From TrEMBL:
This is 3'-5' exoribonuclease 1. Transmembrane segments: none annotated. It comes from Potamilus streckersoni. Residues 305-314 have a biased composition (Basic and acidic residues). InterPro entries: 3-5_Exoribonuclease, ERI-1_3'hExo-like, Ribonucl_H, RNaseH-like_sf, RNaseH_sf, SAP_dom, SAP_dom_sf. Keywords: Cytoplasm, Exonuclease, Hydrolase, Magnesium, Metal-binding, Nuclease, Nucleus, Phosphoprotein, RNA-binding, RNA-mediated gene silencing, rRNA processing. Residues 302-343 are annotated as: Disordered. It is found in: Cytoplasm; Nucleus, Nucleolus.
Length: 377
């Protein structure tokens, strides 16, 4: 099926010189689609939905856009191209955009044993890949191995899975020292101190199952920046309207392949960042979609945690305004196990939470082995 000239092919209505009329941009609130341009976009979207994959690829190639990916992703890419073009031509400003200056991609590797659900994990690799949102470019990375203290000897299963050798962690700094290095590295980019940023992970496990228990074990205050994050699996499936999948599946859907070694924390974080780059290019608005609830217990008992899910939204049009981490202290207190000041949002929900309840989103956060299975799926 060839798209009608009035909708897609012809450029006459798109090239009308409205700039010479000094028309002020129209700003519509979220959910306000009264401008006629939205009716035109609805017709365009309907025609794109009826196109075959080869026809979509031909149109994308004609527009010099990326032609890789499965049909659902190609459709989304073409729709967003015309959405941006039509809104700009009609002087209608989109209501929302990604609010962050940077996205920080984190994927921890931790000690583990095969078929041991009660094993207490310790972080042994701490990678961060930093992406400048405006440039849509990876600008830096932080990478340190960590010396475990509870179980200093790595299991054979852990070494085979992560590729991390015993001598590597033997020479590494303990977690509190690495956290100090993280804080200094973040200050270099003024993350949280002038530049807004959000942490992005592949699932809920990194902050809840790895970082929070590690901070408790090491006597380090859980950092404020880790209390909210973007679960890439969720935002990916919501944006492209596809089934939730792991890193390899997301890459495959985009027509890409994994670069590096799976379960190498730095390589995982880099590939997650590459996925996000394509999503930003396709028009995705990045927003927080998960946050950690910390439930304080009586003196002498350890705090418990729960991952709270924000309501899924069409991340191509909406953002979570007011949830950006833009200021405040990014440092931690390494002198004791205090949790630090809880956000009002977190504190208000503490009395209704339990440890490891069933996740309403379908994510299983109680089993590290399941995490590894999902990552490799």
């Amino acid at each position: 099926m060839v798209l009608t000239a009035a909708l897609l092919g012809a450029q006459s209505d798109e090239s009308t010189d409205v700039r010479s009329k000094s028309v002020k941009p129209k700003v519509f609130k979220d959910g306000d689609y009264s401008d006629p341009v939205y009716k035109k976009l609805a017709r365009i979207n309907g025609e794109i939905n009826r196109m075959k994959k080869d026809e979509i690829k031909l149109k994308l190639a004609e527009l010099k856009l990326d032609t890789r990916g499965v049909k659902d992703i190609l459709k989304k890419r073409l729709k967003n191209y015309y959405k941006r073009k039509k809104l700009a031509n009609a002087k209608v400003q989109p209501g929302k955009s990604t609010k962050y200056n940077y996205l920080a991609f984190i994927d921890f590797e931790a000690t583990c044993e095969e078929n041991n659900d009660s094993y207490q994990h310790e972080i042994i690799e701490f990678p961060i890949v930093l992406l400048d949102v405006q440039q849509n470019k990876i600008v830096d990375q932080f990478h340190e191995y960590v010396h475990p203290t509870r179980n200093p000897r790595l299991s054979h299963f852990c070494t085979m899975l992560t590729g991390i050798k015993q001598e590597t962690v033997d020479k590494a700094d303990p977690f509190p020292v690495v956290m100090d290095k993280v804080t200094k590295w973040m200050k270099k980019y003024k993350l949280g101190e002038g530049n807004k940023f959000a942490v992005v992970t592949d699932g809920p496990w990194d902050m809840q199952r790895f970082l929070f228990p590690q901070c408790q074990l090491s006597g380090v205050t859980f950092p404020k920046w880790a209390k909210r994050w973007i679960n890439l699996r969720k935002i990916y499936s919501n944006f492209y309207e596809c089934r939730r999948c792991g890193i390899s599946g997301m890459l495959e859907n985009l027509g890409m392949s994994f670069k590096g070694n799976p379960h190498c924390g730095l390589d995982d974080a880099t590939n997650i960042a590459m996925i996000a780059q394509h999503m930003l290019e396709d028009g995705c608005v990045f927003q927080y979609n998960e946050f950690l609830i910390i439930k304080l217990q009586p003196v002498g008992s350890e705090p418990t945690t729960k991952v709270e899910n924000k309501k899924p939204e069409d991340t191509g049009t909406d953002s979570d305004e007011g949830q950006e981490f833009g200021g405040g202290d990014i440092s931690h207190d390494s002198k004791g196990p205090e949790l630090g000041t809880l956000d009002a949002e977190l504190a208000s929900s503490m009395n209704v939470l339990q440890l490891n309840p069933p996740d309403s989103s379908g994510e299983n956060v109680s089993d590290l082995l399941e995490y590894y299975k999902l990552q490799s799926s």
